[in-house]
Amino acid sequence: MRPNSHRPGLPKPSALPEAAQPEPPLWDVFCRVVDNYGDLGMCRRLALHLAAQGQSVRLWVDDAALMQRMASEIPPADETPARTHAAGVRWIHWRAEHDSWCGHEPADVVIEALGCQLPQAYLHRMRLRAEAGTCRPAVWINLEYLSAQAYVEHSHGLPSPQASGPGRGLAKWFYFPGFTPQTGGLLREDLLLQRRLAFDTLAWLQVLGIPSPAAPERRVSIFAYPQAPLERLMDSLARSARADGCPVRLMLTQGPLQERASRWLQDHAWAQSTLRTTELPWLSSEDFDHLLWACDLNMVRGEDSLVRALWAGRPFIWQLYPQRDGAHAGKLQAFWDAVPGADGPTLHASVMPWWWAWNGLGPWPGGAAFPWSAEDAWSQAAQQSCARLMRQVPLAQALMHFVAERGGPG
Q: 386 φ, ψ to 5°?
């Protein structure tokens, strides 16, 4: 008889049970909204990217109203799992100033985003879990701000043993996003480039109620902090458009700059034939990407929008979060030096002064035409930057490798 044959009168052997699939590791991402959208925008993307890699994620946010506005697709943790379009991600409201305990056990991986500081009670539970020895201690990561400065490579991945406080005995790891393989990478979802290449600009503009222009025009998106010198930019763009005969359409994101642009245009009738404005509604993160893909030049602010501008592969000017001591000047210079092609003589002479002026770090290039003459070189540099950074491991996957190397789930 063959070894696998069945004897009459005996029950047939049952199929071998499939190997039990391990539960995905649980990640807690803590986000504290300071005064802008970038913190939550970055944390939302990170949570969704981790979930796309099979991880289970809880996103802790202290601003419930903004969370519901920016990430309505992510259900609260106490809601029954009926909605599946944000599979793997749930969110929890927390209030750092009250250190309230929400009754949730600490996760396998804990992300303290942008120095937000974990609740003391949560840290205490992390320490008790580690002391009990019934499971591996949580991998605790301080996800730092994005910078191209030299200290990032030196500090990335360093431990910070906690000698006192509710987290004493635990280790916190410093994790720095960045622009080189020696850093933690940048947030990038799968198939991003394919989606960008397949994007239909005119169809998207029509959905917004913007008809196809009868003649060529340049589109400039503006997402900026309130102190941005918008009126000076509008004056320069209008004068350059009048000189070269190509009108400019300003695509203004929702906020106080829309009113400022409208008021300036009303007061400067001479510019109305060459400068047009479109006041955009509130855009989702995905539609913000579409805006960047649809424009010839993007004025972006903060770190999350900087990364999205890089992936757009279009010319852009970055406005950093201003600091009273001027420390953002060094950060801006470091980024400029890190962009391939940006140190070329054409861009250095024609484009760099506009970056400095837009950030209040240099004089406005009065009388100078806006550097559309460098548009080809500028576009080439942007595409080179995008292609180089695309070769790095995306931040979510790099974080998973980082955690696995330190004894956590990967």
A: -60, -45
